[in-house]
């Protein structure tokens, strides 16, 4: 499973119940990468079939798989911070900033004619909105929507259960400039990743009401401001239907409709083979890879990814509240073996992940991970007061035993958990796998902290430094599921987020990475590439590391 960037690019999100991840990054590498990391950079950043509008058929539909229907369609609300939800909602949203193939933020001219810093002291950003841009009811998108979105996400009103306050809490004011389409944003302190806040916006009526924000879109879609509008949520048939937005002001979408069908990961391979879905997210699933290879005409695509798998340990209580037990677990689990088992069978390099912020092969990446070393693991347990009695580890008369909570019918998560179980079990730490329903995995277990260990993935963003913060700091962050933090991280992230010099920011990020490894609330395992199988003829959709999907161009190649 994975949690993904909820606001498209501005915050990390959990990958859906089919795979799990976190991290964003920029291109390049200032360190000496490993051979595996070097190999990983040979994959393209985008691998889908590109086609100009004239080369795409007008009309038709595409059916895409999600593991479950959203439990909340508001991607700014914590329960909506999930990859499948984002995949559905992104067809209906947009904003002044989008991401290009290289991972750079660029202007989205459908929504704004300009978005730029006009003053550095204080930092002021001015956005000139497109007056033709409207919500699905015809209401124009104006500065009022940006004011309300800021106030809902800046932490000033605890009734809003949002994904992250990062960046929003550094805005001093958002005011109308020359007219209601001129947004003037003044920051109280420098925020280097300001563009991450402008990838989408909420309608004022949603963002100004905590009830609407938190619970207004549990079974129905938020107002659309994109090329498609969600016209039906069929909870019986488990299908969400998005159709062309009749008030869309940009280029007319090529597709008439997009269908999102809930299909368990175990069934997605056969669904793709039978033509029931038009694209298959393979990730590191060898069975899906093999199944896709047998489909006539299927285009198997692979790019570098922004997803890394990990094991999060709940340090709020129990044996994992002891940092030395967490260090022991991280030292005993063979991450290299798990990476090889995950990536090699799908034809991509096996690389371990040793950085909490940057991805392997990216500028700033620094592998500060605890190495695989069972002897060191034993020393950590002894430091924690455990002694080995026979094949068990015992402290104060209690045997060290752990659990991993896994979502049902998600092969990649279960396989990863079984490998963790095997490594720890062989060492003398019994691990029980607790299987729970996939639909409630995050909302009922991960987010409330009802687990000892979980393994999913975080999907990163083009703004890796600022978006990684909520995973670790503060303790009550809606994305910090570890039950612990280090107060020094607050100052470090303040420095990083207010530093405009790229190299200086990387140096601070490296300090943050080392500080987190000192208390190891989770341990990364491996970065996952984006491996997809796409039906013959489907263009402008598939495997990509950064690039914003242009849903007006997705469709079927003209004959």
What would your notes on this structure say?
This protein is of the alpha+beta class and 559 residues long. The protein is 24% helix and 23% strand. It has 15 helices and 23 strands. Strands 1, 13, 14, 18, 19, 20 and 21 form a seven-stranded mixed sheet that branches. Strand 8 (171-176) and strand 9 (182-187) form a beta hairpin. Helix 6 packs parallel to helix 7, helix 8 (323-332) runs antiparallel to helix 10 (374-383) and helix 14 (488-497) runs antiparallel to helix 15.
Largest sheet, strands/sense/barrel: 7 strands, mixed
Radius of gyration, whole Å: 23 Å
Q: How is the quaternary structure best described?
A: single chain
Distance between the termini: 37 Å
Low-pLDDT residue intervals, each spanning 5 or more residues: 2-11, 15-41
Q: How would you classify the helix and strand content by structural class? A: alpha+beta
Put simply, the count of helices is: 15
Mean pLDDT: 90
Dominant shape: globular
Helix content percent band: 10-25%
Portion in strands: 15-25%
- The overall strand count is 23
């Amino acid at each position: 499973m994975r949690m993904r960037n909820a606001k498209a690019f501005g915050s990390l999100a959990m990958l859906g119940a089919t795979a799990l991840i976190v991290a964003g990054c920029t291109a390049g590498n200032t360190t000496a990468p490993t051979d595996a990391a070097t190999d990983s950079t040979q994959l393209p950043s985008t691998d889908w079939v590109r086609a100009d509008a004239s080369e795409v058929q007008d009309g038709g539909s595409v059916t895409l798989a999600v593991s479950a229907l959203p439990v909340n369609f508001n991607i700014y609300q914590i329960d909506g911070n999930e990859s499948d939800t984002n995949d559905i909602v992104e067809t209906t949203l947009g904003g002044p900033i989008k991401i290009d193939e290289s991972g750079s933020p660029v202007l989205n001219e459908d929504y704004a004619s300009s978005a730029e810093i006009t003053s550095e002291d204080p930092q002021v950003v001015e956005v000139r909105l497109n007056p033709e841009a409207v919500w699905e009811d015809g209401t124009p998108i104006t500065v009022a929507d940006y004011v309300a979105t800021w106030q809902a996400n800046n932490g000033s009103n605890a009734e809003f259960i949002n994904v992250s306050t990062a960046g929003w809490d550094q805005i001093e004011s958002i005011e109308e400039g020359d007219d209601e389409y001129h947004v003037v944003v003044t920051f109280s302190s420098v925020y280097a990743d300001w563009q991450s806040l402008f990838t989408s916006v909420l309608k004022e009526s949603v963002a100004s009401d905590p009830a609407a924000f938190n619970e207004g879109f549990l079974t129905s879609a938020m107002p659309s401001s994109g090329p498609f509008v969600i016209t039906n949520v069929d909870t019986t048939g488990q299908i969400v239907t998005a159709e062309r937005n009749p008030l869309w002001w940009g280029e007319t979408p090529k597709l008439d409709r997009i269908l999102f069908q809930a299909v368990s990961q175990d069934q997605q391979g056969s669904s793709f083979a039978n033509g029931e879905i038009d694209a298959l997210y393979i990730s590191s699933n060898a069975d899906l890879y093999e199944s896709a290879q047998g489909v006539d005409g299927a285009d198997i695509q692979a790019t570098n990814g922004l997803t890394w798998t990990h094991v999060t340990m709940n340090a709020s209580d129990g044996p994992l509240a002891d940092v030395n037990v967490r260090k022991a677990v991280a030292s005993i689990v063979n991450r290299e073996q798990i990476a090889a088992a995950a990536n090699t069978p799908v034809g991509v390099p096996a690389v371990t992940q040793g950085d909490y912020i940057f991805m392997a092969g990216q500028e700033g990446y620094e592998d500060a991970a605890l190495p695989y070393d069972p002897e060191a693991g034993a020393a950590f347990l002894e430091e924690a007061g455990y002694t080995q009695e026979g094949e068990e580890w015992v402290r104060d008369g209690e045997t060290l035993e752990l659990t991993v909570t896994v979502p049902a019918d998600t092969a990649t998560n279960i396989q990863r958990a079984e490998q963790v179980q095997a490594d720890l079990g062989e060492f003398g730490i019994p691990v029980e796998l607790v299987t729970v329903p996939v639909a409630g995995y995050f909302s009922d277990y991960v987010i409330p902290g009802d687990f000892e260990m979980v393994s999913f993935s975080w999907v990163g963003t083009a703004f890796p430094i600022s978006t990684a913060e909520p995973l670790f700091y503060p303790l009550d962050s809606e994305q910090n599921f570890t039950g612990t933090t280090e107060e020094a991280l607050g100052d470090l992230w303040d420095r990083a987020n207010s530093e405009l010099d790229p190299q200086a920011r990387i140096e601070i990020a490296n300090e943050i990475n080392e500080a987190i490894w000192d208390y190891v609330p989770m341990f990364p395992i491996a970065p996952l590439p984006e491996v997809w199988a796409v039906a013959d003829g489907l263009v402008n959709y598939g495997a990509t590391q950064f690039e914003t999907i242009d849903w007006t161009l997705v469709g079927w190649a003209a004959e």
